[in-house]
Amino acid sequence: MYQQNANSTIGRYSLAQIEQGFEMIRGSIVALVTPMHSDSLKVDWDALKNLVAWHIEQGTDSIVAVGTTGESATLNVHEHSEVIRFVVEQAAGRIPVIAGTGANSTREAIELTQGAKQAGADACLLVTPYYNKPTQEGLYQHYRAIAEAVAIDQILYNVPGRTACDMLPETVIRLSAIANIIGIKEATGDLDRARQLIYQCPADFAIYSGDDHSARELMLMGGHGDISVTANVAPRLMSQMCAAALAGEAEAAATIDRVLQPIHDAMFVESNPIPVKWAVSQLDLMQGGLRLPMTVLSERHHRTVREALQNAGLI
To answer: Given CB 3.0 to 4.6 Å as the disulfide criterion, which of 52, 97, 165, 214 pairs with 128?
Structure first.
């Protein structure tokens, strides 16, 4: 007679996880910047260590290491893997670490995802292939291949404004049936699309906002969290807003979100992560180094970003 063991699964979770009260990652998830020295543009490991500790202290629920905000496009493969390993080591199991492992080559994405698993990441975040412009079937096959190649929880990431590639809801719904594809970062800001995914994907498939401006509404309608740029500079406020929204406390969430909205605006006065790295440097948490082709924030935007931080009581 067949007997289930701890490695058997119900839905997308193992029996061992269910018995331990396992839950999906929820709340304020920071798309962490990768600090770099201004003079050499080498990764600033001391600053990165301090940022991880600061986010844990401030109430951030999870960290994305080397996502697109973390300048994944300009880190080489060795640096990419080392930053993930370092963040996992510093987090030390206190909060989950999600590794950015997307690429426009399926083989490269598999390699990065394998490295993240070996480093001990809790999950991976995979942006849609950029520039290639794959078909919807190509997207399905891309993500299916990665999921089948690497046994780690994987989160889809749709941000057509940056990739020129839009993963349509019907493709996401197809992919949500694959056991270790556990969620999506939906960064279009389209709440109708988010609502469709919430209603048509499995109940244990996480829908995360990738758009800080509309994150509160997405969570109030049943989403599970926000993978956030603003959380880099306002982690406690973002944590409080997400907690209120996830609890259905609409008025409390809106009150906090009104404070955050000017920061959301300021973080995109130029291409991400230009403004947010300058803002974090103003908090004296790191230097503001950026690798070409990204350049430091234009002086004409300094006042806008600084005032947003000041008005929120951050500096």
So the answer is: 165
Dump pLDDT digits (tens) for 49-95: 999 999 999 999 999 999 999 999 999 999 999 999 999 999 999 99
Of 243, 275, 252, nearest to 262 (Cα)?
A: 275
Please indicate, yes or no, if residue 206 is contained in any of the structural domains.
yes
Is 131 a catalytic site residue? no
Q: Look up the CATH number of the domain holding residue 169.
A: 3.20.20.70
pTM: 0.92
Cis peptide before 293 (omega within 30 of 0): yes
Q: Answer yes or no: is 232 within a domain.
A: yes
192: containing domain: 26-257
Query: Is 196 within the bounds of a domain?
Result: yes
Which one of the listed residues 185, 199, 208, 277 is annotated catalytic? 185
| 157 assigned to active site | yes
Residue 65 inside a domain? The answer is yes
Task: Tell me how crowded residue 7 is: count the other CB atoms within 10 A of its CB.
Answer: 8
Please tell me the total count of domains within the chain: 1
Q: Which of 143, 157, 208, 277 is catalytic?
A: 157
**Spacing of C-alpha 58 from chain mean position:** 17
